[in-house]
Amino acid sequence: MKSSKREELYGYIFVSPWLIGYILFIVFPVVYSFILSFCKYTLPFTVKFIGLLNYKEIIRDPFFRLSLYNTLYYTLFSVPLGIATSIVIAIILNMRVKGVSVFRTIYYMPAVISGVAVSLLWLVVLDPSYGLINYILSLLHIRGPLWLQDPKWSKPALILMSLWQSGGNMIIYLAGLQQIPEQLYEAATIDGANNWFKFWKITLPLLTPTIFLNLILSIIGSFQIFTQAYVMTGGGPLNSTLFYVLYLYQKGFQSFEMGYASALAWILFIIVLMLTIILFRTSWRWVYYEAEVK
Amino acid sequence: MRRKSSRRYILILLKYLLLITGAVFFLLPFLFMLSMSLSDPHDLFQIPIKIIPRRLIWSNYREAWVGYYPFNLFLKNTILITAIFIIGQVSVCSLVAYSFARLKWRGRNFLFTVLLSTLMLPAQVVIIPQFIYFSKWGWINTYYPLLIPWIFGRGAFPIFLLRQFYMTIPLELDEAAKIDGASYFQIYYKILLPLSKPALGVVAINGFMFQWNNFFEPLIYINDKTKFTLALALRMFQAGEFGTYWHLLMAASVLVALPCFVIFFLFQKYLVEGTIISGGLKG
Predict the structure, then answer these.
(1) B98: closest chain A residue by CA
(2) pLDDT attached to residue A293
(3) Residue B91: closest CA among B37, B175, B151
C-alpha cells in the first residue's frame, strides 16, 4: 500500500514538467484566445469586449473566404496526392532488388530539409524563364506555365513542391508494408491471385490504419501551410496563395488585430476538429483493425 | 526455360528504370541548386540555361557566408538554440514518458489522451495569446519563446514515441532494481535511459530538424538582427537590401541545409527504426 502511494507520488512528480508546461502554454492560451476572439484588441494591451462582432465580420470578409478556399484547394489536392505518391514510392522501394537502400536514401532526401531553404530552392526551380521545370518541359517542346506568377498555376506549383517532399511519409508506409506477414501473399499466390489483386485485397487494406493516421496528421499540417507562401509568393499573385494561416499572420502580427486573428484561429481549430471527428466517425467503413479478426 | 529467364531480366530492368526515374525527380532540384550556387552570376539568367556551369566558382560560398551578412553569428545563434532545445526536450520528454509508461497513478490514461489530443491543436490557437503574454514578460527578442513552451507542454510526439519504446523493455528489470533498493529516478536514469538510446536518438534528430528549420516563431519573436537564426537570415538575404543574388542565395541555402543532410546520412538507420516504433500510433 505504502509503496503504491510512493509510486503514485513519483508518477505525478515525473509527469509534472510536461503538465505544468501544458497548463501554462496550452490550456491558458487556448482559454485566453477564446476570450480574445470576442474582444477588440488594440496596442498596447487594451482589450474591449465586443461580443460576436469579430465572427460576424469574418463571415463577411472576402479575404477570409478566399484564404479558406485556397487552403481547401491546396489540402484537397496535396493530401490525397501526397498519400498516393508516398504509397507508390514505398511499394517501389519495397521491391527486392540490389541497391534499393541507395534509392531509399535519395527519395527521402527532400524531406530532410524544410522551411526557408526548400522554399528558396523551389523558387528557382519554378522560375518560368530560367527554372528547371520549364527547361525540362522545353526539351520536350512544351511551353511551361508561368507557375508562381500565374494565379491559375500558383497553387498547383506549391502542390507539386509538396509532392517532392513525400519521402517523409514514404518511410511510414514502408514500415507499414514491412509489417505485413509474408504468408498472406504466399497464400494468395497459391490461390492464383495476381499482383493487382494482392495489392487491392491485401496490401491496401492492411495499410489503412497507417493511411488513416497519416491522413489526419497531413490534413492538420496542410491547413497550416505558411512558410512556402510567405517566402515564395507573399500570398500573390492576385491573392491566389493567400492561405489561411498567412492571412491570420497578416491580421495578427502585421496589423495587430489580435482579437480578429484569434477568432480566425478558432474557426480554423473548429474546422480541423470537425474534419477529424468526421474522419474518425467514418473510419470504421474503411480502416482495417486487426482486433476484428482475432 | 530460356524465355522465362529473359522475361525475368526485363522485369528487373523495368524495376531499375522505375527506380532511376524516381531518383531523377527527387535529385534534379538539388543538382540545379548546387549548379546555381557554383555559377558565374552572368551565366545565370541566360537562355538556354546552362545546367552545368561553365566553370565552378567556389568563392560564391565564402561571399554568401561573410560577404553581406554575418552568417557565422547566425550559425552560432542557431546552434545555441538547437542545442539547448535538444538537451531540454530529450531530458523532459524521456522523464515524462517514463511516468506514462512505467508508473501507475490515477488519471494517467486520461492525461495521456489529453497529451495526444494536442497533436490536433493548430499552433495558431495558442500563438496569439502566447505572443501577448510573452511580450508582457519581456520575452521579445529572446530565445525563451522558441524554447520554453516547446520543451515543456508541447512534445506530444516525442513523449509518445519514447513511451512506446519503453513499453517494449521488460518490466522485470524495474522490479529487480526496486528489490535492490533503487529509487524510481535511478530506474529511469540507470536502466531505461541506457536501453533507450535509439529512441532518444530519434527524438534528438527530429528535434534538431525542427528547431534548425523553425521559421514561424523566430519570425514573430526575433526582430534584432544580431539574434537572427539561419532560417530568418536566409529570408532576409532573399528580400534584402542588396537585391537578390541568386547564386549567393543558393550557396547560403546549401550551407544552411548541409547539417540536416549530414545528420540524416549518419543516422538514417535510427530514423527508419523510430518510424517503425511510432507506427504504434495507428488505430
Answers:
(1) A14
(2) 43
(3) B151
